[in-house]
Amino acid sequence: MSWAEGRPHARYRSIACPLRALAIAADRFYAPRAAVEALVAMYPKTRSEVRVITPAETSARKIGHFRFFKEIHREALWRPAVDWIAEAAGLG
């Protein structure tokens, strides 16, 4: 077994499921779009998409990396995420 095969990320290649990754448009430090796309590329067997979220989708002036989890985004951001998960799991 090679060094790379023994690393946890080597197992990502075997995951085959729907994958939606969210990137926040103004997130330049924690998970900018390029980093999110690089992460998704580590799962080549998934049916993946990267969705970039902008403040225009919410009632907030900005979202930022951690503000996604603020209560104010319950309907605009959380609901679509939960709905996608339910649909991908065959529950929706």
Polypeptide structure, described:
By secondary structure, the chain is α+β, with helices and mostly antiparallel strands. It has one domain. Helices cover 30% and strands 15% of the residues. The chain contains three helices and two strands, in the order βαβαα. A two-stranded parallel ribbon has the order 1-2. The chain is globular and about 45 Å long.
What key phrases describe this protein's structure?
3 helices, 15% strand, single chain, 92 residues, two-stranded parallel ribbon
**Largest pleated sheet:** 2 strands, parallel
Number of helical segments with 4 or more residues: 3
Which shape, going by the Cα principal axes? globular
Overall number of structural domains:
1
- What is the overall pLDDT average? 89
Summarize this, please?
30% of the residues lie in helices and 15% in strands.
Please outline the helices and strands.
Layout: E1 18-24, H1 33-41, E2 47-53, H2 64-67, H3 74-88
Parallel strand pairs: 1-2
